[in-house]
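tool_log.txt
---
The assistant was asked to compare two proteins side by side. It first ran the structure predictor on the initial sequence, then on the second. Raw inputs and outputs are pasted verbatim so the downstream comparison step can read them without reformatting.
(1)
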Amino acid sequence: MPDAAAAAVPALGGRHLAVGSHGVLRVAALEGGELRESTGDGALARLRSLRHPTAPGLWIDYTGPSPEQVAQLGEVLDLHPLIVEDIVEGNQRSKIEATDGLVHIVMFALEYRDTVVASEIDLVLGRDFLLTVHDEDWNPRQTSHLRAETPAILAHGPDHVLWALSDSIVDNYFPFADRLGDAIDALQDDVIGGAHPAALQRLFQLKRELIEVRRAVAPVREIFNQLANRELGLVDADETIYFRDIYDHLIRLTDELDTYRELVSGTLEVYLSQVNNSLSLIMKRLTGVTVIVAGIGAVAGIFGMSEAGAALSGREADGFWTVVAITVLASAVIALILRRIDWI
């Protein structure tokens, strides 16, 4: 029975393996102290000969494989059918599962390009190998540790390769979080400048993305909690300090994401306050206009509109024009007073 050790939370997005697609298989192994890499069909053919207990490091990397290719690789590596099924289906949450002496880990590489882009990464750790399956969006050979130190990392075993890849993924969360924070700052400035529908739409988009990112990142803490405590038995004692360092980084990251979520919630409150203030200002000015118009209407109602016709034909006394002048002057004074107190 698999031991699922991550909260059941949906991740941002997943990998979709297309039937009939042709992925790129790369196998890296140390032979005689030298790094030897194979690619394509030749790599799969020599996998069996590379798997032996004394091998210091074996890393199998598959980019965009088809379901058939994953199943074929699963037979070579003796992967549990549930692991093969999870890799093929994708759309997993961040999790860690121990099955038949293997550890299956799912993580997400995150990138911010005006919106959150997530790339699912499957890592399977065995006694003598590490398997990584991912899309073209993520290149493990360009990560910080493996860019120039692949032989040295492989020499320490597959669990050290797992640390190198995981550490690079988590380290990239921080510049991602910084760009997300910059987007929140820009949105706050926009909202303070004036409440408009585009800002509200962007506000709710960021709020949704933060919730999704939090759900994708939060379970990763449990992954490295188990790896750091050697609950799974496939991590060397000397490696636990490295995984504990990643765990500490994730605690800081989740705290930062919680802060961003509070900032977005506060920005929404500012937006709603601005809308209410704008409505109050409109009502205040309409009230000022009503005061002026109501005064003129009251005077006109007392004298009646028939007096206006008589006055325009020259049959009315000068009193009418006096009342009109007083009414206009009073209205102008009232308008000036309302203007000074910013009611109109």
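(2)
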Amino acid sequence: MLLFFNVFARNEAIHILIINNLQTIKPKKTMRVFLIIMLAVAPVVAYFFPANAQETGGNTTTGDLFSGYSRPITYNRMIPPYALEVTFSKTVHLIFPAAIRYVDLGSADLLAAKADGAENVLRVKAAAQGFSRETNLSVITGDGSYFTFNVKYAEEPLKLSVEMADFLHGGNIENRPGNEIPVFVSDLGGESPYMVRLILETIHKNNRTKIRHIGSKAFGIQYLLKGVYSHNELLFFHLHLKNKSTVAFNMDYIAFKIVDKKVAKRTAMQEQVIVPVRSYNQVTGVPGNRDERTVFALPKFTIPNDKQLIIELMEKDGGRNQTLIVENADLVRAEVIDKLTVKVK
């Protein structure tokens, strides 16, 4: 009986009470029945009225104690934090591999903000001089990377400018573990930034020509749309710029616009600008007798019959501008990307 109670009973007070009764009361038949009932009821009472709740006040728990059943987090699921020192009289700058999308400060002892004119540089300093308690800092970047820091105060921090990188995986997507949970960002339609980058790289590396009837050629410059691809809520445009002249072509900007096919005179043109959410190998210029290819990722869209997609490439301080016209029929025939094969070099 005592062995049964030690295995299932959770309330220490009931445990002591029963043992004392077993030692002092004569073993009469009625008392034996009473003790058997108490042994059966004790686990139920202990479950609904745990002693820990009375000692710590309500449902508050401390240390390794939790109310109810809890599964511990193993160390192989923990993201190791970086150690960071900050001070009151100097600013620490953290340079991340992509634009910063989210910053969380563990306490009011820290001040942090993106550097003016830079999307991937974070300024961090102490809000109060000589704060004693350690705090933390978390950052999420646009490429889906997650960084966490344990931060403490130091009068003279050794590292004032820190370049963050994916030290664990060498910066290569192919080297990342298969069980890693990616960080999703809203502008990619719920898609993983790693998957989007993988698609962009693969389209560029394969260099296949899926479209042969959309292009522009003038003044020794040829601009081609080589393919349109679709993956979930994104469209991918593979563009090829050839400079067959001896004069370098410096790009001013490239724009994706949905415009009316026919515009009556004295009528303002209605246009909708589609902003790319990611790009791969986006260059600012092409030297003479050279060519470059770029892949853009855009939010998925379709075009009404009375409208068309215009891709404009404008030359900086020049007139060799290029324009591509894409119909809705070209978009709906976009090649669906279901499976990608990446060769590791």
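---
observation on (2): Residues 29-48 form the longest helix (20 residues). Residues 61 and 67 are 7 Å apart (CA to CA).
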